[in-house]
Design goal:
heterodimer, A: alpha/beta, Rossmann fold, 2 domains, 28% strand, B: mainly alpha, 10 helices
Chain lengths: 307, 260
């Protein structure tokens, strides 16, 4: 086996809170291979950011190890940090400096002296070239977010970690960002992504792990995860309360009702139940199950842990 | 561009230099106001050393006080701001060692302290030169002592500022540290008076204050006379600097309040 890009080995983390000990991560173990585009999904509070903080050296694990290309992030931290490019979740910036200065300093911290060619390339690729001499305070939220990506990449790290990089970024900018990250991935950089946008994870990631309450509850290739879900979803709009027989199975978002359906007979039964209740289903359609359906299944605990 | 710890050092220097009006001009003005008021009011009332009038005595005290306060302000405010704004993460993600952090923050604090100290010396010198009634010389008799105490004092306060910046989680905690630790130690150090004019009890207290030795030693460099021997002062300042530096390095190494 080649050395994994990132190897999580029985990582646990316990926080001491006013209410007592809280275990944020339970024995989390999985590997991300070289060149993978890997998605880490889970609801808020599942432990994604805690796991990434330990990987980044911003926090210490209570037990277990994390290795980046075989380098331990705790005992060989300086070497590990050279291999990692971390895009933090919080939208932070240093208000004293302009865009170029911030990137030059960041390069300097990694021991890189003349980095302007690569800095220019980063600024171009991220659509920030015309802001190079602007103070950080003058950038919009989306630009600050892209600046976080640029700062994470000044030292050309082989392993890139993005913690919810598209939160609050508009559609067009999200596309630019993904094109750039996908290009880096094709050039051989390994990518670990956490996101709340499941369609992004489905489109970009070849493998996915799902965390729930600090435990890995699913770990598979994206295509296998999709296969494991109900193959189809019946979707319609309804102005009234859903009949009790269906309510347990359905996912309801306002007027929209979605029901997992494996075959035509099941679809007919659902629609019959609606009709018998004296209701009218509007905009009826059948679609393929997507990662969101898988995610909700896994989080509801209907699918067994695969880790 | 510089690399490693020098990049961080350069960033920290540029950080205060970009807002020089607040970080350099303002403390120089404050020191000149002290001189104007205390010097004018007390000139004929306070007897300090033989052959040294009060204004001449006061100026080195004000210079050293400015050096110390600004060295502390630089590292402490930079650290606490970066923590509160969250941009400290950019440093935490780098391979910079705790030694690199220590040298960068402490040396940049020393630069700020020295720049402000020089500014105060020039401004007060100008003030004396234009008021013809004062016959005061500000040429140090032993410049090496002046430099040694200015640098070691600035280093100690820079390292202390780093400790305070790591410890404080909010701006008001930093203000408390300044008001309850730095200010009393500065004002009870003999900036404005010779401690021989204090009651015996407060003389004793002053002898426990490392700031007293910094200012006394610094003043020795100007006049060739002081309350205690400059060698004793150097010893006390050296030991204090070593202890404070060791604590700052330890806190950086364990990531005190900056790594969870």
């Amino acid at each position: 086996m080649p050395t994994p890009a990132i190897s999580f080995q029985s990582v646990s983390k316990t926080f001491q809170t006013a209410k007592g000990a809280f275990q944020a991560l339970h024995e989390v173990s999985f590997d991300i291979q070289e060149g993978e585009f890997f998605g880490l999904l889970g609801p808020n509070g599942a432990g994604k950011t805690t796991l990434i903080s330990i990987l980044a050296g911003l926090a210490k694990s209570s037990s277990g190890h994390i290795k980046v290309q075989g380098v331990d992030v705790a005992s060989q931290s300086a070497q590990a940090r050279r291999l990692l490019g971390i895009v933090p979740q919080e939208l932070v910036f240093d208000p004293f400096f302009n865009v170029r200065e911030a990137l030059q300093f960041q390069s300097g911290y990694f021991g890189i002296r003349r980095n302007d060619a690569w800095i220019d390339e980063l600024l171009d690729s991220l659509g920030l070239a015309d802001k190079a001499n602007n103070n950080m305070r003058q950038l919009s939220g989306g630009m600050k977010r892209r600046m976080l990506v640029a700062q994470a990449l000044v030292h050309k790290p082989p392993v890139i970690v993005l913690d919810e990089p598209t939160a609050g970024v508009d559609v067009e900018l999200r596309q630019t960002l993904w094109q750039f990250i996908a290009k880096l991935n094709k050039q051989g950089h390994s990518v670990l992504l956490t996101t709340h946008y499941l369609e992004e994870a489905e489109a970009l990631c070849n493998r996915i792990a799902m965390l729930k309450q600090g435990q890995v509850v699913a770990l598979d290739s994206t295509s296998e995860l999709l296969k494991a879900a109900s193959s189809n979803v019946l979707r319609f709009k309804l102005d009234a309360q859903l009949p009790a027989a269906l309510a347990g199975k359905a996912r309801v978002t306002g007027r929209i009702v979605q029901l997992p359906a494996n075959d035509a007979a099941e679809i007919e039964r659902y629609l019959a139940a609606v009709r018998e209740a004296g209701l009218v289903a509007e905009d009826v359609e059948i679609r393929k199950a997507d990662l969101e359906d898988v995610f909700l299944d896994v989080m509801a605990g209907t699918q067994g842990a695969r880790a | 561009m510089m690399t490693g710890w020098t990049a961080l050092f350069y960033k920290e220097v540029l950080r205060f230099w970009k807002v020089g009006f607040q970080t350099v001009a303002a403390p120089v003005l404050t020191a000149v106001l002290y001189l104007l008021i205390f010097g004018h009011v007390l000139e004929d009332h306070v007897q300090v050393y033989n052959g040294v009038n009060y204004t001449a005595f006061l100026i080195p005290g004000l210079v050293m006080m400015s050096v110390l306060q600004n060295a502390f302000a630089n590292s402490s405010s930079s650290m606490v701001q970066s923590k509160i704004m969250g941009n400290l993460v950019f440093l935490l993600l780098t391979p910079l060692s705790h030694w690199s952090w220590f040298f960068a923050y402490t040396l940049s604090a020393m630069v700020r302290g020295m720049v402000v100290g020089l500014g105060v010396l020039l401004a007060t010198g100008l003030f004396i030169w234009q008021s013809s009634s004062l016959h005061v010389s500000l040429l140090p008799q032993e410049p090496l002592w002046v430099l040694v105490f200015a640098l070691s004092g600035a280093a100690m306060l820079g390292a202390l500022g780093l400790i305070a910046g790591l410890w404080a989680e909010k701006f008001d905690q930093m203000a408390a540290f300044q008001n309850f630790v730095i200010m009393p130690m500065t004002f009870l150090s003999g900036v404005f008076y010779s401690i021989h004019s204090l009651p015996a009890f407060w003389q004793g207290v002053s002898h426990l204050n490392p700031f007293f030795y910094m200012i006394d030693g610094f003043r020795y460099g100007f006049f060739g006379q002081s309350d205690v021997s400059p060698w004793l002062s150097l010893g006390v300042v050296g030991v204090s600097l070593t202890l404070v530096s060791a604590l700052a390095l330890h806190l950086l190494r364990i990531g005190f309040k900056i790594r969870g």
